[in-house]
Design goal:
Number of helices: 14
Number of strands: 14
Radius of gyration: 20 Å
Oligomer: single chain
Structural class: alpha/beta
Mean pLDDT: 87
Shape: globular
Helix content: 25-40%
Low-confidence stretches: 1-50
Length: about 350
């Protein structure tokens, strides 16, 4: 088996892990033992309300087509029309909608959990696309991630003459602007891509400015949980959470403790080595193990500083690692749950 094929499969598996739980919208968490359960619920409601709806650009430009752009798979893609767009990931859907072109989107991935997309038909689940479903919608442009597959399905779409733009997956804050601009260029609205990039970067910078200064940075472990399938993983290098945690003034405890893989099965030893002060989880993942009480029953969790203090930061599945136009909201939620009012 060729090295490139192996890498694609590993990347696809990691992408599937990160999107498997994105079925509903919510955001909840607790900043520490002093915070009451009732106030946590109120915070969750506020965050869910703001995080579930996108804020498109005002006065969006009309696409100027045709354009020819480079694709991450090494191909050149010519886009002649963008009236029926199919983005095959929640993150790419967010970008199209926030550019003000959501009325042109005709399908969604299961991770597109924001309000404006809820009535669209689902054609991709966990990066596994149904070529038949996509083609039945007669798209004139398909937007995909390098993790989207299977390869046979993607080839079937291309063989039908549909332009397919492949975009590198997001790994950190530095990917926010380039991904927005890549999509905007392909849609024939490059100036709006610059506008949205600037808006996103300005908002992220504003959140970072408000992070309270501390001599010691909290250690946060990112756990991927899927209780129904007995999947309990701790994120290491490449999980996608490191950049977000560092932007929030925290340390990625899994990566810092020496976990080289993107995800490793949770063990008592791994958690003891990571010694997190707080635990970051996806909302549905936390629900799948029975909430904070169930999380504390996973071997090793209760013995960590995070487990003893019940410090859990929870963010909605469909947005946590998107690194898209709502990244500032994700970062703000993490900061609020980690530090409360800054005291």
């Amino acid at each position: 088996m060729k090295d490139g094929t192996v890498r694609r499969r590993r990347t696809r598996m990691a992408g599937a892990l990160l999107s498997a739980l994105a079925l509903l919208t919510a955001a909840t968490g607790c900043g520490g033992p002093a915070e009451s359960a009732e106030s946590t619920k109120e915070t969750a409601k506020e965050t869910a309300t703001s995080a579930n709806r996108l804020e498109p650009l005002t006065d969006p430009a009309k696409p100027q087509l045709p354009v020819t752009v480079g694709s991450s798979d090494g191909k050149k893609v010519t886009v002649r029309a963008a009236d029926r767009i199919v983005p095959l990931s929640g993150s790419l859907s967010e970008i199209v909608f926030t550019l003000g072109l959501g009325d042109r989107v005709v399908a969604r991935d299961i991770t597109a959990t924001f309000d404006q997309a809820e009535k669209l038909p689902v054609v991709t689940r966990n990066h596994d696309v149904s070529a038949e479903s996509v083609l039945s919608l007669k798209p004139d442009l398909v937007l995909a991630e390098t993790t989207t597959g299977p390869d046979e399905a993607m080839e079937q779409i291309r063989d039908a003459g549909i332009p397919v733009l492949v975009v590198d997956p997001a790994q950190g804050l530095e990917d926010v602007g380039p991904r927005i601009q890549t999509v905007a260029d392909a849609l024939g609205v490059p100036a709006d891509g610059k506008r949205l990039t600037q808006r996103s970067e300005d908002r992220i910078a504003a959140v970072r400015k408000e992070i309270p200064a501390r001599e010691e940075h909290p250690r946060v472990a990112f756990l991927y949980l899927r209780g129904s399938a007995s999947v309990y993983l701790i994120g290491g290098k490449g999980s996608g959470a490191t950049s977000l945690l560092e932007a929030a003034g925290a340390v990625d405890a899994g990566a810092e403790s020496g976990l080289e893989k993107d995800f490793t099965a949770i063990t008592t030893e791994a958690l003891a080595q990571a010694a997190p002060d707080a635990i970051l989880v996806m909302t549905k993942g936390l629900e799948s193990v029975g909430g904070i009480d169930g999380l504390a029953k996973i071997p090793g969790v209760a013995q960590t500083p995070a487990g003893m203090e019940r410090r859990v930061v929870s963010v909605e599945d469909g947005v946590l690692l998107n690194y898209g136009p709502r990244t500032d909201q994700v970062l703000k939620s993490i900061v609020k749950q980690l530090y409360g009012d800054g005291s």
